[in-house]
Write a structure and sequence with these properties.
It is a multi-pass membrane protein. Keywords: Lipid metabolism, Membrane, Sphingolipid metabolism, Transferase, Transmembrane, Transmembrane helix. Helix content is 50%, strand content 6%. It has 256 residues and is mainly α. The protein has one domain. The strands form 2 sheets. The protein has a two-stranded antiparallel sheet. Strands 2-3 form a two-stranded antiparallel sheet. A hairpin with a 2-residue loop joins strand 2 and strand 3. Helix 2 packs antiparallel against helix 3, helix 2 crosses helix 5 and helix 2 runs antiparallel to helix 6. The chain starts with a helix and ends with a strand.
């Protein structure tokens, strides 16, 4: 929740500071591929598929609450870092065709109104028209896509990179935003799970990754997690068992 809200506040505030009298910055991808404005729909549809798949995996996992808190912690860390980058760096929008709402001021009432308006769209343009500009450095779409696909099968890798290619074709981000989004999301996800494994193996204190400023949270989040568990998903299969005068489905099936 904090990471999500911090991004909305950062975008609502930084919109007034985006340079609008400069051309898009030079970009290697832009110089070789044409702009296709409708390509963002492909990226967002894929992102929704990955999100739904990731949520299904989390909520049907035999250790669902452990997996959920691990995932949401990684998301919160990634998006908090993104909010910081958006606040610090303001660069021109990647396309002359990008609409940015007229600038006004940075009053508390204006920023709060923008946050409320944007909050429920989760950054998906298909759920709201794009009006505010400035949230470029570290792509939010990339953070979500890579955090969602990392625990899933290899076919999702193809979908993820197709989505990133579509984002660039639509000129919604510079290539550096995509690279940073990939780096931040994958490094946080991998570092957390490396530290968690180290904690359960009793080598946490000697692991150089424990020098990270946020590593003190690992013992708190992992205190009740089993040291080793398989990734089983729990689904319910219909099986008839006599209970009084009714037939009830009670058989539970697990698989990897």
């Amino acid at each position: 929740g904090f990471g999500w809200l911090s991004n909305e506040v950062a975008l609502a505030w930084v919109h007034e500071r985006v340079p609008d009298d400069y051309h898009p910055l030079p970009d290697l991808f832009f110089s070789h591929f044409p702009e296709i404005r409708g390509a963002i729909r492909i990226a967002e549809y894929i992102m929704i598929i990955l999100l739904v798949s990731a949520l299904l995996v989390m909520f049907t996992h035999q250790h669902r609450w452990i997996v959920i808190r691990r995932t949401f912690f990684c998301i919160a860390m990634a998006y908090s870092f993104r909010a910081l980058c958006v606040t610090i760096f303001q660069v021109p929008v990647p396309s002359v065709n990008t609409y940015c709402a007229p600038k006004s001021n940075s009053s508390f009432e204006l920023v709060a109104g923008r946050v409320v308006k944007m909050f429920w769209s989760a950054g998906i343009e298909q759920l709201r028209p794009r009006e505010l500009c400035g949230d470029l450095i570290v792509s939010g779409h990339t953070l979500t896509i890579f955090t969602a696909f990392l625990p899933l099968s290899h076919i999702y890798h193809i979908l993820a990179f197709t989505a990133l290619f579509s984002i660039l074709l639509a000129r919604k981000h510079y290539m550096i935003d995509i690279v940073l989004g990939y780096t931040v999301s994958t490094r946080i996800f991998m570092e957390y799970h490396a530290l968690a494994a180290s904690y359960h193996n009793g080598t946490f204190e000697t692991n150089p990754l424990s020098w990270s400023w946020w590593s003190f949270l690992i013992p708190y989040f992992e205190s009740d997690a089993p040291s080793n568990f398989h990734n089983h998903l729990l689904l319910y299969n219909r099986s008839t068992t006599r209970v009084g005068a009714k037939n009830v489905s009670i058989k539970k099936r697990s698989f990897e």
